[in-house]
Amino acid sequence: MEKEEGRREEGLKTFILSQIEEKGPIPFSQFMDWCLYHPSYGYYASERTTIGKDGDYYTSSCVHPLFGHLIAKQLLQMAGILGEEAFDVIEMGGGRGFLCQDILDWSKRNASSFYERLRYHLVERTPHVLKEQRKRLAKWEEEGKVFWLPLEAFEAGRVRWEGCFLSNELIDAFPVHRVVLDHGKLKESYVIQQNGELAEQWGELSDPKIEDYLPSMGVMLREGQKAEVNLKALDWMEKIERCLKKGFVLTIDYGYPAEELYAPYRGEGTLLCYHRHQTSEKFLERLGKQDITSHVNFTGLIRKGEEVGLHFTGLVPQYQFLIGLGLLQEMESLGGKLSEVDGLNLRLTLKHLIEPEAGMGEVFKALIQHKGIENPLLDGLKGLRDITV
Length: 389
Description:
Blueprint lengths: L1 H22 L2 E2 H10 L22 H4 L1 H18 L4 E6 L5 H13 L1 H6 E6 L3 H10 L1 H5 L3 E4 L1 H5 L5 E8 L8 E6 L2 E10 L2 E7 L4 H9 L9 E4 L1 H13 E13 L1 H4 L10 E4 L2 E3 L10 E3 L2 E2 H11 L2 E7 H7 L2 H9 L4 H15 L9 E8 L18
Parallel strand pairs: 2-3, 2-5, 3-4, 5-10, 10-14
Antiparallel strand pairs: 1-7, 6-7, 6-9, 7-8, 10-16, 11-12, 11-13, 15-16
Helix pairs in contact: 4-5, 11-13
């Protein structure tokens, strides 16, 4: 595996250097796209385990099935609001299929009428991940509950659904433009070739939309402050709106409203690389061997949503969202069926989902938007502190 990873890194480096030789400096957003999604050498093209204890990072859905069960409860309520027709769940970037599995498993055991209405669509671009999803979800595919949709069909708006568009840790992996305020002028990061190696250089903006992005959020960077601009996230909201006839968008990811995300104390931005559960900011190393992410600008998602017709329902920290859906009661119920030691282990495991500081509870947020519905009231948001955006 190490030799294969070494060939991956060298192959991607050779490819990027050839592109620089042919086209000149490459915007960081394009570099990040190749590092993550190149079909042969990209991080997500690797068949080694990237999620979980043996991978590079954890996601909420791989911590415990209860996460998916609580999401299922929220989907059940959404389906009740929409009516009696078929309820489509569309998940993009579903990883190894755990979240889909847990949602379907809970629904079949606990809400049979909802399960009958439920159709689950996965949008997946990585062949080996698609293969694992099909294997894990085979029995639900046979029941006619799980479907796979080509990314191209979603992006072209060739499908229309009523239900919920669901994503869990998707937007943080969208390629971003990296900028800095230099002598009062916004400049963009480019990757260049320097003595046969990759290096970073600042230059003119590659897209005029970058210039307007931060002011549109009411943000002004300080001199020397670096930040990320996620234009793809805004395009993504437009594509969702085209495909969603009526229903909800549930986005779970880590990030902040713009005022906090671009605060002066974040002088280096939020770009991070993950490898073997260690973080670094060295994005020019381990090409194709490490994940590269940036924190989500929830203000951008909300404002773009309002612009295109996806209206703001609520934004809360993940721990509040899960508690609103009954996490504490579920923990007590599960713990009562276990030995003292197993009950303790369960509490320690689930603590990771809601712990504000060390866990996923505060930095992770749940954003809900709606279309074609008037002022929906949802359990994941009830009686909780909405985040100001």
